[in-house]
Amino acid sequence: MQIRFIAGLCGLLLAGFGALAAAQSYPARPVRLVVPFPPGSPSDTLGRMVAQRLTDRLGQPVVLDNRAGAAGTVGVEIASKAPPDGHTILVASTGGLAISPALNPRIAYDPLKDLAPISLIAYSPFIFAVGPSVPANTFKEFVALARARPGQLNYASTGTGSATHLAVEQLRRVTGFELTQVAYKGGGLGVIALMAGEVQAMFTGMPVLLPFVKSGKIKGLAVSSAKRSPLVPGMPTMIESGVPGYTMGLSIGMLAPARTPPVIIGRLNRDIVDIVRSADIREGFLVQGAESIGSTPAEYAAHMASELKRYRAIIKDTGIRLE
Fold it and tell me: 252 with 122: CB under 8 angstroms?
């Protein structure tokens, strides 16, 4: 019994020394930041801001590696299978971490098992907007209009199973209106269709819609955050507009492969939280339509689990299937 105790104690000490050595030598080379979307996407833009500051803190270059494809799942899979030594990290959003896994149970990774959360860095709510000729100036007026013309009003989405599609589907369950989905290959094309009158509504992220709302080319009726956004303080929330408890948006966070040493996760968390909470980065995020967060790994893990559960429920209730 005593020999076993001593052997176990030695094992714990060796593990502790190994973790300490890993922390002291980290990073030993440039750090790869996998971005599952092309340059210019929200994840890329925010990730690039953080990477520049993280380079200074780590003393090694943080190099972006854009791996776009399959709604963000290609890049997430690549990062999840990388060596868990802290030299590959990931910036990912709701699509690859919650929506795609909820839609496709056979996806090649489990976001809750194959990734180690570092920090939730930003949240970008959606704006519900209508075209300039639509006779509605509040969300309640639009709901009344849509109920009076069931199936006759179109909305732009970025495809079946996308966040824009699921956001409207969740609204449909609550409000009872019926809209016809028209899918476009990108949010920009949807905005063009909205301004031209090809579709009457669009519900998507702030970076896509905000410039056109501020210029008056389209009408923003409600924002999907729990509280009013500092970017559009005059715009009511969906909750204020008569949809109790409704929130929807894009969460962006940073993660590492599962089994990355906790001391390295802790080091990255402290640096990243300090970066995203700094005044100039907060301002830079706001310009991109995102509110900076900064969380503990445990808080981000709980958020991921909650979002995955939420989207699974929406998909089950609506019967959405990938074609």
Answer: yes
Q: Report the topology of domain 31-123+249-318.
A: D-Maltodextrin-Binding Protein; domain 2 (3.40.190)
Read off the pLDDT of residues 13-30 as tens digits, 9 standing for 90 and up: 444 444 455 567 899 999
* Structure token digits, residue 127: 């704006």
DSSP 200-249: SEEEEEHHHHHHHHHTTSSEEEEE-SSS--TTSTTSPBTTTTT-TT---E
Tell me the whole-structure pTM to 2 decimals: 0.88
pLDDT at 12 (0 to 100): 45
What's the token pair of residue 232? 């559009």
The beta-strand segments (E) located in the chain are 31-35, 62-66, 88-93, 115-130, 154-157, 180-183, 201-205, 219-223, 249-257, 291-292
Fold for 125-223, please state it: D-Maltodextrin-Binding Protein; domain 2 (3.40.190)
**How many CB atoms within 10 Å of residue 83?**
10
Query: pLDDT, tens digit, for every residue of 25-79?
Result: 899 999 999 999 999 888 999 999 999 999 999 999 999 999 998 888 999 999 9
